[in-house]
Amino acid sequence: MTASLEVVTLEPAADQLRYTFGGGEPLLTVAPGTVVELTTEDCFGGAVRGVDDLPSRVCEFPYLNPVTGPIAVEGAEPGDTLAVHLVEMAPVRDWAVSTTFPHFGALTTTHSTAMLHEALEELVWVYEVDRERGTCLFRPRRGGPEVELPLDPMHGTIGVAPAGGEVFASITPGAHGGNMDTPEARAGTTLYFGVNVAGGQLSLGDGHCRQGEGEVCGTAVEAAMRTVVVVDLVKGGAPAWPRLESDEFLMSTGSVRPLEDAFRVSQHDLVTWAAQLTGWDPLDAYQLVSQAGLAPAGNVVDTNYTMVAKLPKRYLGGAVAVDGVHDRLRETAAAYLGSR
Amino acid sequence: MTASLEVVTLEPAADQLRYTFGGGEPLLTVAPGTVVELTTEDCFGGAVRGVDDLPSRVCEFPYLNPVTGPIAVEGAEPGDTLAVHLVEMAPVRDWAVSTTFPHFGALTTTHSTAMLHEALEELVWVYEVDRERGTCLFRPRRGGPEVELPLDPMHGTIGVAPAGGEVFASITPGAHGGNMDTPEARAGTTLYFGVNVAGGQLSLGDGHCRQGEGEVCGTAVEAAMRTVVVVDLVKGGAPAWPRLESDEFLMSTGSVRPLEDAFRVSQHDLVTWAAQLTGWDPLDAYQLVSQAGLAPAGNVVDTNYTMVAKLPKRYLGGAVAVDGVHDRLRETAAAYLGSR
Amino acid sequence: MTASLEVVTLEPAADQLRYTFGGGEPLLTVAPGTVVELTTEDCFGGAVRGVDDLPSRVCEFPYLNPVTGPIAVEGAEPGDTLAVHLVEMAPVRDWAVSTTFPHFGALTTTHSTAMLHEALEELVWVYEVDRERGTCLFRPRRGGPEVELPLDPMHGTIGVAPAGGEVFASITPGAHGGNMDTPEARAGTTLYFGVNVAGGQLSLGDGHCRQGEGEVCGTAVEAAMRTVVVVDLVKGGAPAWPRLESDEFLMSTGSVRPLEDAFRVSQHDLVTWAAQLTGWDPLDAYQLVSQAGLAPAGNVVDTNYTMVAKLPKRYLGGAVAVDGVHDRLRETAAAYLGSR
Amino acid sequence: MTASLEVVTLEPAADQLRYTFGGGEPLLTVAPGTVVELTTEDCFGGAVRGVDDLPSRVCEFPYLNPVTGPIAVEGAEPGDTLAVHLVEMAPVRDWAVSTTFPHFGALTTTHSTAMLHEALEELVWVYEVDRERGTCLFRPRRGGPEVELPLDPMHGTIGVAPAGGEVFASITPGAHGGNMDTPEARAGTTLYFGVNVAGGQLSLGDGHCRQGEGEVCGTAVEAAMRTVVVVDLVKGGAPAWPRLESDEFLMSTGSVRPLEDAFRVSQHDLVTWAAQLTGWDPLDAYQLVSQAGLAPAGNVVDTNYTMVAKLPKRYLGGAVAVDGVHDRLRETAAAYLGSR
């Protein structure tokens, strides 16, 4: 580790967890470039531990989907860009859970897609997590083959304080980030958020051992996480919607309804971003993204739906995004990991 | 080539091209298991050959998106499953085109998403196609880097005659297939269609040198194609919506609006299919798909939007879909390719 | 009746009923201005006659929602406007029916809004129709107050042959009209359709003793009807979407998904229409419609959803639509009614 | 006025206006049954006074759509029902304004329905308000007939503090009410809100001299208002979504996206409400509402869209809603008006 690497720890107690983006005092304040080792609780607050722990019984609204934070970043002002590099995340326990939550999910009546059906049956699945082998084990509740799935840890919920004094439940994704539930938020990725309030106020949680695209049933393989991030600041350049960068891809997100509008927002942002980076006319960028982009669903279950628009960086003629902060944070992460 | 391999050729003249699914006499009738070598014209009927050939001038409604077919399959009856294996497809010419078509695309006002804006500017992009190197070259119209993209040929439009005597324009995707515009329809993949009328009446066209997910601007790298398919028949088992199978994935599709309903249809079909193959309860299948599935956009521009739901076959406990026809067609394809 | 009033009768036998728009030979050809006395069967083909006649048992796909027609209009060519004035409609029988059809309706899982729920229970309601008193009687199946509702007869389905050789099931609404299911299609109203094929090919059916806006459960108070229309032709001026005119309102329709796009289409058409009639700039018409328009749902259950945009004619500065054909047809209707 | 009629006045200064629902201290606390005479500023904060006052120049985010309140109601606890009767509302000034706000409206690209178009031209319309004659005068900006429209004053924005500690911008409608923008919120109507926090915390604003259904261009005939309400409390019975009652109708609302989900929410609530009031089985209520209900759009422009579901009270077999509070508040209103 280089002498300059600042590492701090954030392990909130249960009563320090938050349930909103916006509105609270920061739990921690860090300088740009700081490595934060932190823990997050699962989306059920750890209350679902077995197949008999039905969420509708053991969880209490609005104490769902707790997040760790907010982390204020020194010097962050509205209009700046908060860069959050995900260094690593690992499930804390040797089990994880998923459920069908009544009136939640893509293939069920919900409070918004209101119908006269009774709720689907509420079931809990407990996954065995084997961190050594890097797997989690799916056990069907009613027979049929068990399936060993690879761990692919991610945070479903990560974002900053919204603009305009709004306070959103942590289950809501939007322009501030939040509960986007995209599997792209995995280790090795940098997320960019527009800063709306002083300090930016980063929070994250809702760790998933893995998640399919769309999060169809409404919950992933939910787990408390031990996570390391590097938090950095780029002055100005605030993106309108959260963006992500991996070694291979630039990614834009859109979190609204209906799903085609989430698609439009994410694609519009990616087109605009690519045009700005390369000097292409927007219509030229529109053309290139149309032929070379990917468009996976994030979630189609939350209060807003999330689509992700991805473009391989190799198709940008050598352009570098956000002043190259992703590469620098990769180096910081490597230095941190090498120093342990 | 084994003695039993039947190979026929279908190269329709311009006046033999069709513009609908349903309603016409078959252009060819084949026995199940037949290899068909065929050609398809591009979605502009070959009329857009340079940047000055604006589609709104050189194309005439409804003579858009021509398809080759219908190909009747002997013995196919309503309720059966038509299996179409894509053996190979290659662009016919050394160029391909894409355009912004007025009032068509995801980031523009359209006839359905009607707004008071003028149409976006109509532009044509001509790609150089290098079949040797397997690339197509994107040249921005207004400066900035050129980009060499890998060829990844596919058919945007493939399907059968609809049910109930309906006749749909070839630009419409739906339960009959049609203009799904998913990049998954590439060589090595088998598509399954429910048969609605005697013979099934397969048609295909709208070849793309490559296409991004969502086909954001409304057109891909459009090219006339030389394509080889194997057409086979499985009695009974008609899927409600087109399904695809590759060596790695089972895939379901949904083509409706809004996009979340296309997502729901595709995921519902995949969940139901996985449950049927494995013996899982539908809620168990719902759970597994939620954690292990992929959900890329097909198109978000056509008269219906298409979502694809994908599940790795290795998570199905060894279950085999559609009586193993995919593997058999892979063998047929190998035999055919080996015999040339 | 004036000497010039031509009156013809069209009472198709059961095997003459049609189930699509587009694709068949006309059942009748009339000169513009002809009064047509016709009968229509109910959407169940008359097969649901009591609470035990569940549609899923007594009806057979695709023999649903029969229409009377097509009626070809002499001289009608693509680009012309077919004007259909509804003179009167009366239920034929002294009963009418409604049902919850499995997987059909706004508050249930459907084939498009696909979910893992079982279908809602299939129930039939039989209404007593009292033509003298002008009422139909709602009898709840499971107790609670009976309700006498006023008759307000309308046709759920009315339209012309689609463009481009397409053939649509009669349950589908669209730019050709079809199953719009708006209560605005009542006596005293003139409907305008753009002609797509020679003769226009008008068909209608799906009579409702009355219907709420949105047709929430999927079926109205369904009845066979005895209906009188005047069919007229205006050369040119084909509207892109069906329009309606009553003594008080101009109305535009949009029939697509999602519902906001149906809203957009209908409002865009009304704004454009108002601008054309008055000489307002489109932005001025947008402003006026925003303050003075009405926007009821037609249906939110069919394969496309329908919204209606209404503007009081008195806010148009004296402008007259479609060359005043509505007023002329009102006179024709009065002459016809006076002559009986 | 009876001796017991309590009347208080609330005329907030500019710096006392609020821009959110939730999160602030009450500006006034009243006992149930109090008549409140209050003023509201227009949605532009009074800054748009002429055609050159473009909102994008004279307004500053997030200081848009100010509301008067919150008004805390003594004894209101979560789960209770806040009843707000609109006694009268009158525009304060002899002019009112409307605009096309860039990226806002139903027929334009917005931040959610993101497209590559430039924003529509930003225009301001100034209406002359004649309170004596009860009219407001539309003057087209670019020629064509002027139109005198009847005043039909309403509040676009009215609601309570949201649940779960959330704070929403006043431009957002939802389960808490807010910016529903339905013309049904006119004098003579009682609104019912579920109480989420102690006191309920009622706020209102966004007065409109009149508004078309859907508020297509995004703004109505916007005016500062002098308004009188009676605020009352019913213990328990909190509706999930705002409900309205007039002398003739029960009304449910839904404010989500897409628009069909807003329709579903409103219809589901109306069906459920009707079933509860009459003793009908939910499927019987579904049937009756399908035949007798109305379904106008509220707004199709805000961050959530609003649909209204209406049922004539005369079809409820004499059932009385919310313990008859509407009739009692009508009497209170009459007493108040008679006493002036």
From TrEMBL, chains A, B, C, D:
Gene3D superfamilies, per database record: Acetamidase/Formamidase-like domains (2.60.120.580)
Coiled-coil regions listed: none
Domain of life: Bacteria
Pfam families recorded: FmdA_AmdA
InterPro entries xrefs: FmdA_AmdA
GO MF assignments: hydrolase activity, acting on carbon-nitrogen (but not peptide) bonds, in linear amides
Name of this protein: Acetamidase
Organism: Geodermatophilus sabuli
